[in-house]
Fold these 2 entries.
Entry 1:
Amino acid sequence: MSYEDLFTQLKCHGQEHLIKYWPDISENEREQLAGELRKIDFVEMNEIFHRGMESSKVIAEKLDDDLKPIPQSHYEAVPSLSREKIEEYENIGFREISEGKVGVLLLAGGQATRLGFGHPKGMYNVGLPSHKTLFQIQAERIVRLQKIAEEKTGKEGKITWYIMTSEHTMAPTAEFFKDHSFFGLEEENIVFFEQGRLPCFDFNGKILLDEKYQLASAPDGNGGLYRALKTQGMLDDISRRGVEHLHAHSVDNILIKVADPVFIGYCLSRNADCAAKVVQKSSPSEAVGVVCRVNGHYKVVEYSELSDEAAERRNPDGRLTFSAGNICNHYFSSEFLKKISNFESKLKLHVAKKKIPYVDDNGVRKKPTEPNGIKMEKFIFDVFEFAEKFICLEVARDVEFSALKNADSAGKDCPLTARQDLLRLHRKYIREAGGIVKDDVDVEISPLLSYGGENIDDLVKNEVFTISPFHLKSMEESATNGVNGANGKH
Ligand code: UTP
């Protein structure tokens, strides 16, 4: 396409400034820029800008009058369920796993800015005795689940792991898995795909240039999942493999019960198309979104959208009325995901004013010290309102949720807390299985040995754990990785 054609086309949409530096750039750079521009639907982008600006105006409104908690009929809490009920759900989940109907959607496209780690967050090692990374821990939980499913049903369990990456995380993530032989999983059951990006705009709707030959853009948020599932052929892959249930979650929860059979069984037995695991808010001021109903629609209401009165309101039993803390941990039926791909363009846009490096009118690249434009993101939970049967499962925070967001200097949601939370949980599993371990002894249980505290009785009963740190490994790991922390005497 000639410069003139490009100019005419861009001018129609008020974006002709994007080729202002055409005369200054090399032939290769022109090709790169033209390639980027060709991929953009400018009608859609201008609409996105206006929709984003509109939605950012209503964000400040408090929603109290329209807010209702999740009805009891749509809510169960694992800590209050009987052992029989949990087993009932779990057995359904294992049955589905053994039939190859369960998939995991891992959200691994984030930039880990707060953590300040220059690699995909899943490659982070929080300093456990085993030094396993988040990716390895999750992979090994899948290995273990497949094994349990086989033991329980006699049929080989198979979980398909869909890993959503972004432009920056795709190559290093795929390489990391390859370098680690897919952590013992079948390569064909791991599917990497890439989420999209959205341009960054100035406050007047002009797309910013990051370089004279490159637009400023950012990943389209974890809600970019829905578009990527469609455009990257994942919906077809899901159908082809016969996957019916998808457990979607963030990469940074070290306690994540990947492909949780209890959650799958709960959702299936309630015929849900979409569901959220939640934890009870720790206090009214905890800055976490709450799952609730707004005008009859299920939504996550951000902490900033809740008035103090609503945040502090309590039920007669003393529990916070709006206590269902969202932890980016969801269930989707494959049918629901297919349906959502048609609503994707209606998803809310979350707007953030940011300091975005840009090329100014004189062709100089600037790093602004004040916000100069907006980035827009879609959030995974904004599809709840399209569900026909939405339910919640409350889980215990100390068993299922500890997020890695920040560097240690923040003192919360950081490598130290992630490590401590996992080791605390593993001490609890050991004690429940009859072992003796003091609070200052760090024992990590390999996910290859135990997914959720099962399968360790014979190893820990009446054992006193004194060596710290200690890695309680599976037989296979002990055989291949040597003696330190091997099972048996210590
Ligand atoms: P966060 O919003 O916590 O972002 O993502 P982050 O990238 O991990 O960290 P910061 O904000 O840059 O410090 C929650 C989950 O959503 C994924 C992340 O990888 C994480 O698992 N995510 C986020 C995506 O997959 N894509 C995105 O565009 C954004």
Entry 2:
Amino acid sequence: MKRLVLFLCIFSVFLFSGCAKQEKKLSTLEKIKKEGKITVGVKVDSKPFGYEQNGELKGFDIDLAHLIAKKITKKLEPEVEFVKLASNDRIFALNSGEVDMVIATMSITPQRNVLVNFSRPYYVAGQALMVKRKSKIKDISDLNGKTTGIVLSSTGESTIIRLAPDTKIKGAKTYTEAFSLLKTGEIDALLADDTILYGLINGSKRYKILPRRYTQEYYAIAVRKEDKDLQHVLDRAVRLLGDSGELNLLKKKWMK
Ligand code: GLU
């Protein structure tokens, strides 16, 4: 009998503690509104979209994150926490819950769309090749037998496999690292978004960006699959920023 009473006591403790935990979990959007804060995954190797200067994060995507935070929280000075990510980390950081959204030169692709959802695009870039000024490479068809650099898990990786299957590929973790490989001659060309290549070349006469664009890269804000309400709000926010001319101002500020 004593054992039965003891068992019933323990069972009821479990039962009630279970009930107490059944509070409804807030969605990411609800959490953002409640806390007045967003956590955003950004890049720091992708000037002029995301980079670091004297310890401060700067760029188109950083400014966009601040505008988006104001729109969602309706606060004048919302808190924006930035998490620095490489291209390869974006989807994991999002789906593991480390960030609420990713604003990081991230293109919409059908493969990524299986794992995350995107807002409408806020910018369209194109992939291009960067080579040394004196290089004889003029187009992607000249890359056979040469070594081409890409950043791992970027769309450049799939483009090079598709358009230059006979080139040797060297993957780098970041664009800074990929550019060093071009400087030292370990790669003959670097395939990346023209936006990022312009940031790397930074007016230097030692390198050139070839004229052809091989893809269209639709940059959009990525959210977790389950965050449909957040996706909807971001979609609207990007549309409003487009209509009000604020996106154009960002383009003028960062893409000189
Ligand atoms: N926009 C391309 C992508 O999403 C390349 C830029 C990047 O690696 O961030 O993969």
